Amino acid sequence: MAALKARYRAYSDYLRERFGTKVYKLPLKLPVTCPNRDGTLGVGGCIYCDEEGAGFECLPSSVTVEEQLARNKEFFRRRYKAGKFIAYFQAFSNTYLPFELFQKYIRSAAETEDLVGISVSTRPDCVSDPYLDFLAEVGREKNLLIDVELGLQTVNYRTLLRINRGHTLGEFIDAVGRVKKRGLEVCAHLILNLPWDDMVDVIESAKVLSALEVDYVKLHSLYVVRGTVLGEMYQKGEINIIPMEEYVARAVTFLEYLRPDTVIQRLVGRGPHDKLLFANWGVSWWQVVQRIEARLEELDTYQGRLCDYLNGPALRKRFGEAQGGDPGE
Ligand code: SF4
């Protein structure tokens, strides 16, 4: 198993190396929504989003932040013998709040015992300088690792319009720059098998994330939920979902083009069980992960093998290593 993991930089290994113990994320749900659902940008949301907004694993938002953290901590300690924790503001857009309220929630989480970090999931168009300055300040004060998770899904801005994201690539680039400028870390979410994307988009996604020095990546396979626009398209036969082997090939290629130091938090997504029309080709998410790991072995390939396109590749090719820069810098 260790040999397999070494072919990409897995999050669990990274956390253990960094903190010297098992670290688990404690999922949190705030009473927030999303500008793509509340009418600010749109009402329908992204075409694949159901009303849970990725919070199906969380306790209800009516439970206080302190209580959610305490209950989840107890669960992870008992079940996985976790030693340290990251408070994970997971569902919807967690910076889409009045500033004072955002500060209150973050400060409550930051007081938790055995906390090593805070992770805030949001949209690229919902981060701004004051919110980021505040996060950086809390990180310094409490000695916490802070990361901002940004949904991008694809770098193909035409696909972003089709899936009704309500933002395009430009907002993502802007947000990453602002987050990183403050010494905070960035996690980017991608869906590798959106029906309008192909391998060219997958490779370009890896290149853009590498160029922006994104710290973490979460890859998702598309899941189709009943009651969404995508669900309707699926039921009417208007979209095609690529076979699992093609998803595996895309994930492997993505890893090959990605910087070797980017940490991989996920290789495949999980959806809410009760409303699914399609997810992971009818197999468990971990079986898809196993297929990707097996394919890396079969091809004897690894993360970063093709990451040679940064820092003047044409200069390196024409005039040698000394005159083109190091692609890893
Ligand atoms: S940004 Fe997230 S929460 Fe908002 S509509 Fe899209 S998937 Fe749903």
Query: Share of helix among residues?
Result: 25-40%
Number of domains: 1
- Based on the coordinates given, report the CATH architecture: Alpha-Beta Barrel
For the biggest sheet, the summary is:
7 strands, parallel
Structural class: alpha/beta
Distance between the termini: 30 Å
Largest sheet strand order = 1-2-3-4-5-6-8
Strand percent estimate: 15-25%
Number of helices: 12
Which CATH C-level class is it? Alpha Beta
Instruction: Characterize the overall form.
Output: globular
In angstroms, what is the radius of gyration? 20 Å
Work out the number of β strands. 9
The CATH fourth-level homologous superfamily:
Aldolase class I
Helices and strands, in order, run as HHEHEHEHEHHEHEEHHEEHH
CATH topology: TIM Barrel
| Low-pLDDT windows of residues | none
User: Which small-molecule species are bound to the chains here?
Assistant: iron/sulfur cluster
Mean pLDDT: 92
Describe this structure in words.
It contains twelve helices and nine strands. Helix 4 packs parallel to helix 5 and helix 10 packs across helix 11 (285-298). Helix content is 39%, strand content 15%. Strands 1-2-3-4-5-6-8 form a seven-stranded parallel sheet, sandwiched between helices. A two-stranded antiparallel ribbon has the order 7-9. It is globular and about 55 Å long. It has a single domain (4-324), classed as TIM Barrel. The longest helix has 16 residues, at 65-80. With 329 residues, the protein is of the alpha/beta class. The protein has helices at residues 2-5, 11-19, 65-80, 99-110, 129-142, 157-162, 169-181, 199-211, 229-235, 244-257, 285-298, 313-319, and strands spanning 23-28, 84-89, 115-122, 145-153, 185-191, 216-220, 224-225, 263-266, 276-278. The structure holds iron/sulfur cluster. The site of iron/sulfur cluster (SF4) has 10 residues, from loops. Iron/sulfur cluster (SF4) binds at residues 34, 36-37, 45-46, 49, 53, 92, 123, 151.
